[in-house]
């Protein structure tokens, strides 16, 4: 080992140059991480294959500016030098450096890190007066030469650089080591990878454009990092995430303070940031530092509904003044991929012969326009394109970016679906060959079978238990099954055994493997309770791996029909029909009885029964949307949900007791009291009092807030309660005090997700923890060391982020299909475009309404842009007239020459539904008041009776679907009964290749179902399942 010194010339956050001298040690043996190594290097972990045609070594400039090119999985054999990685760290910051580190760790990417600056014979000391970029290029070239010689010339090495002088100087010095510019490399070695070449051109144009920016300052410079840090500690500045109001993206944004020590006792809410200048180049999602303005400049939130990007004028649309500030610095950029639309030809600006400078409009209205230089401005008009931001200097009105990939023409279904996924950071790349190679094979020629070794280690329930599943119609991914049976009487009397059996996905998906495989075999992870038949007191509980054979695969409507004593066709019933049917029906009835008692126990603790809207789009054979049908609540939904909640709770207890510092649980913090203001004000206007001091008080208040004349009142109050809830979150037990484990919505002291490992990664982690807990109970240690508290908490945060993205994607995809349904209908003549709506919120210039027939929520304006207001005729119809508008707490009035019209909270009105097209953004539903009277009487609009056997406590209502929709649904059910699954599909439930429609359904499943089904964890439990507002 040789000791030397390394001199670094760095820049401080204030811009000053700093000379740093560090000790530097050189070694003769440094791992090369190539399978072709002849020197027996200690190559542990990921190594480069010898099957590639060459190895490629990017210099510091390419690694810094063209990282996105190197992320293409098709480009293999990449050797990142230590020199290049440090250049990325010092010039691009922590975010880009972490991105490079993730790339090096990812086994799906064929790249490694070579520590050239610690290798005795590849290290190059910096010469006196040598520019840093020249020294870095020389270091990488010497590393390339050493690497080629170290491998005995078995593989050519290509160094890629953007320095033309380096190409001229080094390209002919050593045989077997080639020096090319990046563009030439892509054209020579990867001519079929056109996307990479186009991305290179886009980034190169963006870098060239950045160098030609003007010097006139448009924004205030951001403060240095140390000034911001000191200001946050002292309380002068407030740290938080910028959230832009999508309805007033040009004018209103909010910063929710977090992690700061702000000492202002008056600051108990978000900080308002008004206008683009005060936002100071911060983009939605950025972590920022905010300075409060003087109190005389504080403003209030705008309370009026906004149509488009216009903003209502006048102080009457403002709420009470709130803390208002301006952004003084960016603590962390959280830029992502953005989908934009290229402008029409007349809006493009020629920059040179081959490129044009354009302002692309993002699909997300909260993101500012992005300046892009492109050669395809004319070709890609009206197309959706993925872009990435590069910079936003104080001299530029708009951020600079570059295009990455073209999605397709705006308005086409495939393009819009892809847009939703990209905008929510949901990436669905196809399985790689390596991942497919990890999957067990099951084919007609080689069917999968149970391993005899597994029979020995598992509890075999195939002959002793009646196991069945209850899922949505057509469900292929059956991962949860149930069993219930009587046990011999014990000392305390009659006993029952309840069993929840979940697909043992972790048997097939080994920790650290590439595959996220769906396991649909007969292997299961089971939780089985020995219960007192009368009180349901738990005598014993058993956890373990089992072998099961599902006797029946039921769908919800079929199971409910059996419970109701109706005639129903169960495909699995054989010749002994009557006896088997009686056995199945008895099991369902017992299970329902148990579920009612379990729910009653949680009710006593304060479990909430909240309300969400889940809408299903019915498609015909040509994939056209024929109807929008709200999900109908059935008691069997709640039965299955309650069993899944019970299993999740008991597994949470088990893993937390076994691993107090490193178990993955899920908690639901109590909501902030101010979030209940709308709920309380609305209930008060109807004569009800809502007590929000605890979940029990809230649940009891909601149960009492029932209007016998209109069940929708209670439903809307529950929707408002849902909207007030905080998000349920995953966490590691070592990172959270025990008193914060509580789940507010479910009223449980501990909770986790165990019951859906096929579609949730969190459940797979819990399965592994449960397996380790069982092994520890038997005296054996875990097969692999468990994740530490810190590692588990990082995973939990990642899952929480993905969960939020999936929930938002679910919401936007529902809005997409609602627009697709109404897009081709004439709102003036098509009776399906006229519907009954219920007012649930009053705003300064209109109201928000709910349309139960379609599960729609939207804004109805009572004042248009010309200043006219809605005036009611004698027949109840409405016209636009000159007049005034007055808002009150529980109603809003319009006054014209004709008279005064009043719209009350919870009033039924008639609205016309149309679609407002948008060239750059998503289409939106437009609602217009047609009449101040109900379209149909509330008594005929909703069905107040409960499903047979439902609890008296439940106030969930069922909408009556239009006759045409019912006919369409019946036709679909007939087609569903006619179609038969193959034996293989029926036995193993193997999914076919998904299309975009099924992908959207997966997004809905990833969102942990709807808000009202948050606790269950079983696949597709429906809107009737209870729980917390934000997915238990």
Shape summary: globular
Described by strand count, sense and barrel closure, the largest sheet is: 7 strands, mixed
Instruction: Give the low-pLDDT segments.
Output: 259-263, 308-316, 514-520, 937-1030
Counting DSSP H or I runs of 4 or more residues, the number of helices is: 25
Structural class: alpha+beta
What fraction, in percent, of the residue positions are helical? Answer: 25-40%
Query: How many beta-strand segments?
Result: 40
Q: Tell me, rounded to a whole number, the average pLDDT.
A: 83
Strand order of the largest sheet: 19-24-23-22-21-20-25
Main location: cytoplasm
GO cellular component, one term: cytoplasmic exosome (RNase complex)
Catalytic activity: Exonucleolytic cleavage in the 3'- to 5'-direction to yield nucleoside 5'-phosphates
Organism: Oncorhynchus kisutch (Coho salmon)
Features:
single chain, 40 strands, alpha+beta, exosome, 7-stranded mixed β-sheet, 5-stranded antiparallel β-sheet, about 30% helix, about 1050 residues
What do these coordinates show?
The chain has 1032 residues and is α+β, with helices and mostly antiparallel strands. Helices cover 30% and strands 25% of the residues. It is built from 25 helices and 40 strands. Strands 19-24-23-22-21-20-25 form a seven-stranded mixed beta sheet. Mean pLDDT is 83; it is low at 259-263, 308-316, 514-520 and 937-1030.
Task: Give a quick precis of the structure.
The chain is α+β, with helices and mostly antiparallel strands and 1032 residues long. It has 25 helices and 40 strands. The chain has a 7-stranded mixed beta sheet with strand order 19-24-23-22-21-20-25.
């Amino acid at each position: 080992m040789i000791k030397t010194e390394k001199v670094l010339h760095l820049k401080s956050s204030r811009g000053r140059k700093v000379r740093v001298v560090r000790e530097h040690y050189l070694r003769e043996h440094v791992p090369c991480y190539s399978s072709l190594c002849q020197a027996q290097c200690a190559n542990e972990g990921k190594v480069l294959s010898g099957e590639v045609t060459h190895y490629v070594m990017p210099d510091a400039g390419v690694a810094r500016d063209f990282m996105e090119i190197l992320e293409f999985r098709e480009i293999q054999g990449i050797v990142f030098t230590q020199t290049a990685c440090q250049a990325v760290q010092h010039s691009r910051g922590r975010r880009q450096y972490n991105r490079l580190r993730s790339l090096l760790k990812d086994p799906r990417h064929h790249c490694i890190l070579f520590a050239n600056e610690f290798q005795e014979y590849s290290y190059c000391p910096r010469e006196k007066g040598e520019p840093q970029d020249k020294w870095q290029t020389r270091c990488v070239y010497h590393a390339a030469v050493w690497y080629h010689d170290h491998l005995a010339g078995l593989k050519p090495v290509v160094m890629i650089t953007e320095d033309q002088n380096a190409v001229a100087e080094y390209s002919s010095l050593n045989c077997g080591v080639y020096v090319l510019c990046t563009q030439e490399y892509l054209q020579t070695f990867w001519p079929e990878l056109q996307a990479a070449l186009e991305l290179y051109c886009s980034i190169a144009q963006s870098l060239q454009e950045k160098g030609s920016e003007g010097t006139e300052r448009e924004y205030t410079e951001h403060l240095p990092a140390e000034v911001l840090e000191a200001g946050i500690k002292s309380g002068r500045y407030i740290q938080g995430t910028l959230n832009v109001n999508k309805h007033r993206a040009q004018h209103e944004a909010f910063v929710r303070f977090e992690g700061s020590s702000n000492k202002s006792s008056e600051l108990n809410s978000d900080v308002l940031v008004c206008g683009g200048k005060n936002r100071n180049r911060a983009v939605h999602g950025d972590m920022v530092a905010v300075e409060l303005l003087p109190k005389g400049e504080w403003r209030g939130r705008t309370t009026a509904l906004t149509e488009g990007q216009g903003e209502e004028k006048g102080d009457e649309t403002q709420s009470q003044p709130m803390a208002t500030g301006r952004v003084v610095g960016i603590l962390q950029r959280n830029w992502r991929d953005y989908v934009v639309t290229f402008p029409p030809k007349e809006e493009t600006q020629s920059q040179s012969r081959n490129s044009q400078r354009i302002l692309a409009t993002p699909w997300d209205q909260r993101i500012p326009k992005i300046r892009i230089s492109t050669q395809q401005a004319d070709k890609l008009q009206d197309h959706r394109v993925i872009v990435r931001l590069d910079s936003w200097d104080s001299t530029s009105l708009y951020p600079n970016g570059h295009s990455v990939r073209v999605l397709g023409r705006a308005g086409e279904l495939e393009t819009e679906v892809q847009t939703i996924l990209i905008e929510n950071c949901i990436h669905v790349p196809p399985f790689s060959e390596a991942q497919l190679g990890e999957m067990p094979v099951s084919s007609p020629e080689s069917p999968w079978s149970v391993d005899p070794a597994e029979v020995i280690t598992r509890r075999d329930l195939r002959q002793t238990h009646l196991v069945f599943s209850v899922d949505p119609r057509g469900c292929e991914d059956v991962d949860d099954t149930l069993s219930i049976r009587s046990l011999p009487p014990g000392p305390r009397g009659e006993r029952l055994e309840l069993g929840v059996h979940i697909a043992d996905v972790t048997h097939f998906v080994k920790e650290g493997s590439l595959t996220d495989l769906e396991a649909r075999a007969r292997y299961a992870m089971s939780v089985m309770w020995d219960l007192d038949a009368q009180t349901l007191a738990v005598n014993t509980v058993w956890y373990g791996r089992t072998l099961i054979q599902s006797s029946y695969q039921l769908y919800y409507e079929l199971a409910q029909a059996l419970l109701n004593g109706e005639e129903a066709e169960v495909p699995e019933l054989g010749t002994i029909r009557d006896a088997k049917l009686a056995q199945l029906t008895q099991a369902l009835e017992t299970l329902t009885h148990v579920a009612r008692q379990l729910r009653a126990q949680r009710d006593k603790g304060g479990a909430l029964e909240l309300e969400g809207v889940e809408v299903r789009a019915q498609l015909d054979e040509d994939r056209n949307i024929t109807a929008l049908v709200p999900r109908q609540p059935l008691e069997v939904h709640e039965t299955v949900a309650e069993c899944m909640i019970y299993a999740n709770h008991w597994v949470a207890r088990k893993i937390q007791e076994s691993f107090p510092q490193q178990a993955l649980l899920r908690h639901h913090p109590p909501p902030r009291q101010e979030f209940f203001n709308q709920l309380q004000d609305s209930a008060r206007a109807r004569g009800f009092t809502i007590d929000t001091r605890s979940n029990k008080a809230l649940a009891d208040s909601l149960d009492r807030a029932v209007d016998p004349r209109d069940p929708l009142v209670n439903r809307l109050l529950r929707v408002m309660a849902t909207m007030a809830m905080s998000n349920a979150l995953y966490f590691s037990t070592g990172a959270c005090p025990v008193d914060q484990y509580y789940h507010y919505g479910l009223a449980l002291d501990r909770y986790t997700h165990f019951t859906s490992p096929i579609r949730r990664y969190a459940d797979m982690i819990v399965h592994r923890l449960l397996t380790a807990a069982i092994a520890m109970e038997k005296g054996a240690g875990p097969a692999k060391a468990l994740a530490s508290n810190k590692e588990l908490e990082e995973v939990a945060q990642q899952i929480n982020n993905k969960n939020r993205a999936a929930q938002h994607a679910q919401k936007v995809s529902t809005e997409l299909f609602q627009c697709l349904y109404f897009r081709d209908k004439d709102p003036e003549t098509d009776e399906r475009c006229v519907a009954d709506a219920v007012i649930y919120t009053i705003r300064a210039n209109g109201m928000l309404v709910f349309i139960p027939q379609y599960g729609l929520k939207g804004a109805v304006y009572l004042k248009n842009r010309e200043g006219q207001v809605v005036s009611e005729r004698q027949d109840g119809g409405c016209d636009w007239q000159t007049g005034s508008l007055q808002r009150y707490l529980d109603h809003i009035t319009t006054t014209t020459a004709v008279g005064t019209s009043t719209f009350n909270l919870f009033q039924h009105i008639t609205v016309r539904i149309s679609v407002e097209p948008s060239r750059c953004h998503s289409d939106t539903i437009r609602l217009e008041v047609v009449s101040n009277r109900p379209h149909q009487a509330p008594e005929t609009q909703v069905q107040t009776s409960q499903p047979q056997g439902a609890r008296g406590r439940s106030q969930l209502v069922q909408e009556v679907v239009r006759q045409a929709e019912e006919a369409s649904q019946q036709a679909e059910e007939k087609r569903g009964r006619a179609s038969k699954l193959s034996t293989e599909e029926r036995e193993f439930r193997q999914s076919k290749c998904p299309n975009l429609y099924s992908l959207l359904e997966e997004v809905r499943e990833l969102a942990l179902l709807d808000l009202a089904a948050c606790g269950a964890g079983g696949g597709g439990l429906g809107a009737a399942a209870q729980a917390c507002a934000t997915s238990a």
